[in-house]
Each structure stands twice: as C-alpha cells, then as structure tokens.
Amino acid sequence: MAHQRFTLHKRILRDSYNPFDLSDFNFKKLYRLPKNVIFDIIENLRPVLTKTRKNSLSVEIQVLTTIQFLASGSYQRGIGHDCLIPISQPSVSRCIQRVTQSFLTMYAGRWISFPKTRAERSNISDRFAQTTTYPGVLGCIDCTHIAIFPPNEREEAYKNFKGFHSLNVQMVCDSEMRILNVLAFPGSVHDQFIFTSSALSTEMERLHTNRIGQFYLLGDSGYASEPYMLIPILHANEGSPEYRYTKNHCLVRNSIERVFGVLKGRWRCLKKDRVLHYKPQKAGVIINCAILHNMAIQEYT
C-alpha cells in the first residue's frame, strides 16, 4: 500500500524521474522532510493546484519544486536541474507563488497558533516548567532579520541597522521549538515596536488585566519589562538571586535562538546570502517555512 502511495506516473514527473524513488535519506536531504509528510501535502493541495490545461505542471511537480526552493535557497535558476525536473524559470516563479499562497491558506491557522484556551496554555506552561524555575511561561520571543531584495516603494523603511534590506520577523516558540507566532515588519522597525503593535501583545495584556492566570513571555533586553514580559537583569552580581534568575532566564530563552538556527539551516531561502525576491509585505515564504519547521518538529518528536 505504501509503495502504491509513492508510485507516481512517469508522465506526471517529467523525463521518467520520480523523486519518491530516491532513498529515504536522499529524499530528506533534498526536501528536508520525509516522503509521507510531503505526500500528504501534495494530496491536501491537489484540489486547489490541479490545472485543466494539458501542458500544466502536475501538482507533484509544483509542490516538490517549491519545497526544493525553500530548502536550497536557490532563487528559481537551477531548481529544475537540481530536481532533475526540467522547468523554465518563469514557470518556477509562478509555481512558487501559487504553491506558497495555497499552502498558507490550507495550513497557517492549523500549524502556527498561540495558545487560545486554558488547556493549551496549561500544556505549554507545564512543559516550560520542566526546565525553568518559574511557572506560567507561554513562549520565548525574539526577532530575526530575513534579507529581501530592495523594494521599489518605501525602500529606506526596509534597511535595517546592519545596512541591508530585510524583514524584521517576530517569532515565539514553545519549549519544544515549535513556532507559535510569526509577524513581519520592515527591517528598520525595532523589536519592541513590533511586539507592542501585535495581537500577541494585546492577548498577553488581556490575560494579565483579566487575571487569567499568571503567564509570561521570555524576551531579551531589547524588550521593555512588563508584568507579562520577563527580561534578563543586566550586570547582576554573581551569586545573587538576580544573577541566578538571569542565568535561568537566558538558558530557557535560548530555545528561540535555536529555532532561528534550525529554521534557517533547514530552509536556506531564509539565510542572509539567499535574498528573497518576493514582495516584502506578503512575507508568505517565511510563514511557509515556519509551518514546515513545525511539521518537521512534530514528525521527529
């Protein structure tokens, strides 16, 4: 049965090449996810990606081409060669835009979600409690810069303090490195402004104001201290309670730094030397990568 699921008609994958014939190791090396996960993505997107024109790209080619782009960071050129599926650059460009948008519509709300219910909040905070000395942690928060091609409009707004154009992307993760929240602003915008402008800030303030438990986010010193935002205490004396608090805080909060490392290592289109050419206000490629990151976390936990 499993063999039948992964056997695709040779006409569908051009030149008689079927990536599902690769070994499991080589398939994951190329696409970053196991065959069963990508097969499920293909089947779920089939109703919205199927085209009626005779020469249209198959759903399999569309999905595999897009995921290989996200994984390799090669902007369109050479993807067809890398996959051994010959596709023109314009076709690849249209394919990536179509698949990433369809993928967002299908998966975003299901795979990236900050806890909304008491049970969800308790589940996340209980897992954090296994590694921290204080209860009620709902996530670790930070921002990372994703390089983009200079946009035609408001170009200066996207130039960050390091001198390159980017999106400054806020993310929150749980103790198992699942991404719970993603929000992108132009690269010149400060982390604190992104947070205070977000629905996440509104939700944390609501929980605090309405006394719905004592819940916190862990942020670095770039954030303002709030009743629901715990930040390190700088220059604390070694051995003091403040020092021990900060040491534990930094140890736990490091999970978001690990998320950024794993995310950019697995989906190389997000690395600084792989400049995204898509319109920055959409940020769909980044959210696609975050969803796929969570899928990988679930697959291996």
Automatic annotation (TrEMBL):
Domain of life from the UniProt record: Eukaryota
Keyword Hydrolase set for record: yes
Major place of residence: nucleus
Keyword terms: Hydrolase, Metal-binding, Nuclease, Nucleus
InterPro entries registered for this protein in UniProt: HARBI1-like, HARBI1_dom
A GO molecular-function descriptor: metal ion binding
Similarity annotation: Belongs to the HARBI1 family.
Protein name per the record: DDE Tnp4 domain-containing protein
